[in-house]
């Protein structure tokens, strides 16, 4: 790739040919504000906040859409540039409805922050605003059309990253709006409730549906025994709510904070991530045996099932592959079922007297928790789901000094986990965790690795592949001797579409992991804003560090997992396991 030389604010920088002015400015360490730009996607130039001055140009140009050229001289902070940006922001504020003092995004709003930077202290252009239409039709998300500034970020992420297509620009001029076609509600269109729109929205036009008040009410109810589970991705992101660097592990402080909030027990979704590996790995081996030994027609490849946005996506767009998806519930839902049966028996509580609260990086988990089939304990298995952002707010509401908290430890028996469970947070992590266990079950030996991980399925490439030749099997698994196990990994639903098309075109896979959000759960729709690839990489690195620091790194060696099978479930895929830990899927066509 050839390079060109650009000068920005008297800083000379070399960039790849084809870069934009915005790209060059980032490399030079110069900030150009944006409200519509989405990393790695074709720039739209919709907001015009990124206007810059180019020597020799007749007018200001948009930094995000204008290609950099060799020898270009750019100024980003002249009076003309500042005045233009201020004018654009004042126009956006003039039709932006809502009171910042009570807005969900107050002090976490990009429009508000830019207005402060530009010294805007009052609305200059008073005028009509569109009437706010509140859409709270889904369990996960709430839309407020009056707060929308029509930047189209949500349109980009929904159509070009996730390739779901629930949100579009409609109408023209002042009457234009962003939303589902024909002014429908989100519940009336194929919205998978992944929340990537809420994570990328610069204002409060799309937010998660809050469960905070319900959780406070449960904690204040002396008749309820309230337990909390925390997903692996939380520990590498919660610190950002308290100004820690992305990727800072705050596991111990998080546990202490949850106890101070009043939870009766603090458990770990990682425990049921290990349980998922036992069930899902066994399910894969059973499918392979039926295909290779019994010569039955079996739905292969097997897809992972722990990501509810992905399940929703498959039910809407690919119902023909539903039989290929593992019947395992997600770790969140497995935990709820186990907490209200196995654990309830241990502590002498009725299922209806236990409240299960989840802390998840994902808005789709709110949808998943209320699916009608998720009640195998006899009552709703998971009662409330908080996003990482919501937990951060609750800790602040309680006046807890998070940075000075001592390190706490999870409670037992649903709190111990392996490093394999930690990496569920990362794209490729579920696959690696499953292979660690399945390979050792089949061969009796540890997975041979160059380094500590399966390198081909690490990183942020959208679709990843790996293969592993199985040799030296135990006698009962001899049918797998010499089999080359082929696996695939996709993150982001646009990449899920691509790997499905690869499979349907004849490419051979035995096992495929799909995570709804870019980067996996560490980039979930409920994580602290703003999630860039740089932030994703830091969170992923932290999760791998957590795994590598544990003595216990394989799910089948977790003593609490061995205990629950011995005392309660008996074995993977047992009758009770099927009742509590497995589910079914339905076409939404």
Strand order, biggest sheet? 2-1-5-3-4
Number of strands: 18
Quickly count the helices. 18
Q: Quick one: overall form? A: globular
Question: What key attributes describe this structure?
Answer:
Rossmann fold; 33% helix; 3 domains; 589 residues; 5-stranded mixed beta sheet; alpha/beta; Alpha-Beta Plaits; single chain; globular; Ubiquitin-like (UB roll)
Protein described:
The protein has three domains: 3-77, Ubiquitin-like (UB roll); 125-208, Alpha-Beta Plaits (2-Layer Sandwich), CATH 3.30.70.20; 210-589, Rossmann fold, CATH 3.40.50.1780. The protein is built from 18 helices and 18 strands. Helix 8 (269-292) packs across helix 14. The chain is of the alpha/beta class.
């Amino acid at each position: 790739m050839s390079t060109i030389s650009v000068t920005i604010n008297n800083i000379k920088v070399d960039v790849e040919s084809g870069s934009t002015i915005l790209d060059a400015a980032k490399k030079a360490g110069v900030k150009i504000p944006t409200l519509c730009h989405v990393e790695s996607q074709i720039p739209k130039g919709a907001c015009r906040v990124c206007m810059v001055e180019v020597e020799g140009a007749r007018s200001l140009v948009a930094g995000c859409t204008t290609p950099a050229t060799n020898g270009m001289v750019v100024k980003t902070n002249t009076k003309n540039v500042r005045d233009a940006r201020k004018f654009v922001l004042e126009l956006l504020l003039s039709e932006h409805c809502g009171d910042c003092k009570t807005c969900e995004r107050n002090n976490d709003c990009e429009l508000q922050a830019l207005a402060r930077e530009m010294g805007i202290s009052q609305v200059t252009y008073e005028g009509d605003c569109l009437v706010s239409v509140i859409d709270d039709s889904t369990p996960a998300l709430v839309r407020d059309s009056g707060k929308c500034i029509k930047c189209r970020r949500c349109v980009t992420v929904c159509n070009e990253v996730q390739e779901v297509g629930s949100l579009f620009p409609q109408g023209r001029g002042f009457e234009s709006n962003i939303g589902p076609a024909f002014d429908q509600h989100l519940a009336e269109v194929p919205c998978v409730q992944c929340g990537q729109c809420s994570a990328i929205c610069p204002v409060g036009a799309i937010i998660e549906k809050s469960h905070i008040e319900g959780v406070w009410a449960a904690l204040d109810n002396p008749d309820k025994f309230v337990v909390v589970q925390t997903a692996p991705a939380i520990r590498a992101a919660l610190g950002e709510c308290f100004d820690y660097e992305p990727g800072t592990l705050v596991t111990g402080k998080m546990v202490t904070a949850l106890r101070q909030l009043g939870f009766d027990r603090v458990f770990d979704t990682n425990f049921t991530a290990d349980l998922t590996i036992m069930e899902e790995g066994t399910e894969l081996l059973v499918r392979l045996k039926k295909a290779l030994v019994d010569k039955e027609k079996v739905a292969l490849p097997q897809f992972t099932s722990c990501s509810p946005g992905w399940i929703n996506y498959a039910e809407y767009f690919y119902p023909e592959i539903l039989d290929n998806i593992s019947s395992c519930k997600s770790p969140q839902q497995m935990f709820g079922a186990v907490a209200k049966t196995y654990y309830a028996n241990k502590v002498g509580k009725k299922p209806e007297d236990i409240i299960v609260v989840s802390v998840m990086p994902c808005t789709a988990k709110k949808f998943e928790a209320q699916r009608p089939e998720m009640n195998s304990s006899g009552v709703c298995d998971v009662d409330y789901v908080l996003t990482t952002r919501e937990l951060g707010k609750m800790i602040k509401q309680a006046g807890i000094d998070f940075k000075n908290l001592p390190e706490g430890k999870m409670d037992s028996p649903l709190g111990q986990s392996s490093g394999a469970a930690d990496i569920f947070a990362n794209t490729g992590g579920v696959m690696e965790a499953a292979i660690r266990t399945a390979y050792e079950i089949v061969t009796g030996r540890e997975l041979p690795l160059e380094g500590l991980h399966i390198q081909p399925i690490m990183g942020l490439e959208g679709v990843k592949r790996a293969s592993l030749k199985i040799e030296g099997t135990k006698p009962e698994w001899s049918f797998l001797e010499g089999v080359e196990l082929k696996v695939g990994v996709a993150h982001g639903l646009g990449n899920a579409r691509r790997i499905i098309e690869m499979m349907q075109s004849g490419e051979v896979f035995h096992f495929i992991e799909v995570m709804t959000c870019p980067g996996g759960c560490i980039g979930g729709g409920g994580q602290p804003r703003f999630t860039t690839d740089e932030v994703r990489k830091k969170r992923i690195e932290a999760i791998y560090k957590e795994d590598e620091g544990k003595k216990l790194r394989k799910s089948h060696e977790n003593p609490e997992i061995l205990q629950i099978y011995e005392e309660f479930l008996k074995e993977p895929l047992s009758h009770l396991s099927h009742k509590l830990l497995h589910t079914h899927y339905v076409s939404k066509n």
